Amino acid sequence: MRQRFLSIGPLRPGLVSIALILAACASSNTPEKAGGAHRDPCTSQVIITFTHDQGTTPDAELIEQIARAASVQLSYVRTAGPGLYVFSLAAAEASCEEALQRLRRDARVRSVDVDAHRRVLD
Amino acid sequence: MRSSIWFLSTAAAIGAMAAGMGGLPERNPVRTHPLESSQPQTSALHVIIKLRASASTSSGTAQVQSTGLEDAREHVAALARRAGLALDEHRQITSRLHVVQVEPLAGESAAATLARLRADPQVEYADLDQMRYLHSMTPNDPLYVQQWYQQAAAMGADATPSAVDVADAWSTTTGSSTIVIADIDSGVRSDHPDLAARLLPGYCFITDPFIANNSSCPGAGASDPGDWITSTDISGHSSECGKAMAGPSSWHGTRVAGILGALTDNNAGIAGMTWSAQILPVRALGKCGGRDSDIISGMLWAAGIAVSGAPANPNPAKIINMSLGGTGACTSSYQDAINQITAKGVLIVASAGNEGGPVDAPGNCTGVVGVSGLRQAGTKVGYSSLGPQVALAAPAGNCGDAATTPESACVYTLTTTTNLGYHQPDANDYTGEYYCDPATAPYPSCSLANSNQYRTYNLGTSFSAPIVAGIAALMTAVNGKLNSCQLLERLQASSLPFPQSSLDAATQPPVCHVPSGSSDLQNAECICTNDGKTCGAGMANAPAALNEALRPVAAVVVPSKVSAGQSISLDGSGSAAANNHSLSTFQWSSASGGLAFSIQGASTSKATLTAPSCGVGAVTFTVTDDQGRDDVASVIITPGSVTTTAPATAGQGACTIPAPAAIQVAVCPSTSTVQLNASQTLTATVVNTTNPAVTWSVNGVAGGNASVGTISSAGVYTPPASVPSPATVTITAMSAASPIAMASAQVTVAAPPKSGGGGGGALDWMTLLTAGALTLAAQRSRRAVRA
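^ Those are the sequences you sent over. The predicted structure of the assembly is below.
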């Protein structure tokens, strides 16, 4: 299972590239692009918790299904702790917020947070 | 030195005694005189003697109470003679209580001399007149004089009402070496001489090599290599350093660790809040900060929860300090991790933030002790964030109005341990000292003799949090049965009210308000409100917190299922007293306002009562320890449920933050039928409030009216002149204490049966049948709702 999992996500550059190129082409006529300014697709590191226990590493097939349903690419990075999984997220749109919302609407996903940056408080 | 040796040997003896008794080893450094030593006494003995009310003298029986001073002196002198002692001095306290100084027999111990005095038939008791000492500890750390925040609140022009007075608390406990406090931060300088002996081997969870500053992360060890930021760092790592400014290393984790627990009474540096706890450094931040996922991994690991890729933590923390954060709401992932950690009974203390706006995450997460920052005057220091998520407040440091230039004195800095390295580590030292700018004296040639120096002041809510975490460690040292929820509740309960004026300002600052949003900043001093909505419940106070911690913990096991009329067993035997104390009494009683229960075994740890058929009641369970300190738990009982927020067993790790007990109302009887010419009395019971009053309404009309009937303030319902339509009315009792707490009953109005029959009888019976059907329908409806 783990081997199969590792064969998807970040190790499918072809699929990611095609998806991103298609998405970029599809959105090339949107008003945001009308001005000619180039906007990179969104990438972010996120922490995801799932409705059902995923154990040490999340189920690869489940992740693939969730990613496809939300039109995003999810690459497993590591497990931060019990039930807390870190992924790198890529989506065609410039802002990741809509991609995050699509993921959050999936019943199999309990929560998605940006892996935000914190600072010491002196 | 002599006093240190004496202190250490005494502490060791007390520690050994505690260990022998099986409790947590506690070190109490309060000086005590050796009691009735068996060693030969070489100097005069001071003894307090109480004579019996009817004392025999050599000349016969006499009433001591009636004698004058000379007679009393003679009684005592005669007593000394009988005991073979030379009486040096005598002082009378009362007619029967005397203080004497006697010369013991050569080679005799104090204990033997006392035994001979006590054997005299005239003596009720004889005790050594011992030396006693102030219950206050002043450590010999030379920088302790600067640590105003640890001392008793100063009075007068330089008053420091926000000082937490941990010096007083140290007379009760200086902490326990079995307690581990995790410092999730930038790492700690493991070679700092005022910290090294307190540090456990830590772990680094940073996964980004840039943030880790090329140290071996993730991996074992949590020493801080420095977190300086250059302009190149900012331009080359915009995602991490986008909001950062170039600057020197902060040595932040080292500074936090010093507040938590620098080595104390070691004739060096500063005093820590706790003298004994072990500090577990967990490095999750570095250059430009740190990622949530690394911080969360560090939190979980610190609490003893397995984290993939990291070895098991052999020293799980009881308290986690997090002097870090970022703007925004508490994220689901933080809350998930926090729930896992608090379920193990581990307390998380976090800084509120330094933006003067809403509380940062994770300080704003449920179950976290968020700590806001105070000026010495007890007002909110301008930079401290605030809001209803704050649990309580503690000093954060402020430089006063005079500190407008870098070199001016910063009187109210929070002095702590640090390193003087501008970039890489240099000499370990303390804040308030100077460091060198590498532009004029680059590392390693930087020295304190350099002319271009800057003072390292220590300010921020980062340092309010470890003050509170340190107090929590002392609380845990005296009562190991407290879980994180109880620690949080008792920290808040023991906090002091905020002063409602500022000592500093020529014109009074405004009152703090709840931030309306992220852009609503209160960057200047403001007066904290005492409603718990801005700076927390109050100002942290260490001795008051220990008093709260020393109270026992009431625990109750309730049955999971109950039905009306069934016998209910309530088991409070899982309650416990604080360390080295025992429970003396148990008491179960019906709370006012609700149903009154007949309780069997009301003065034992296990009580029995009968579930009511209608209404709601509360049973109060009070446990009292051998010092008269108590704790109270409440059990709410209805016909179908028995609930409590108390733990099943004291010391049980898992806990949930209890919401304020909701007011509950019940109306009895829940269904009834009343004839037109009669009345129906309804009873409302209210629990979880001291105000049992209710207001009554009929079909939503307060007090009712002529169409639906009326109800008095005493709950007496009088039907209207004719049967209403529909015939069943809803009578509601609403708590006067809370408009959302209410309960209803259904009353069906029926015409009275006519005697002798008649044309109208059929109609009347039809009405009654209809009313009965409606009542049944209403009952079915309620059941359906329950289902």
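Residues 1-31 of chain B form one domain. The mean pLDDT of chain B is 85.

Shout if you want it in another format.
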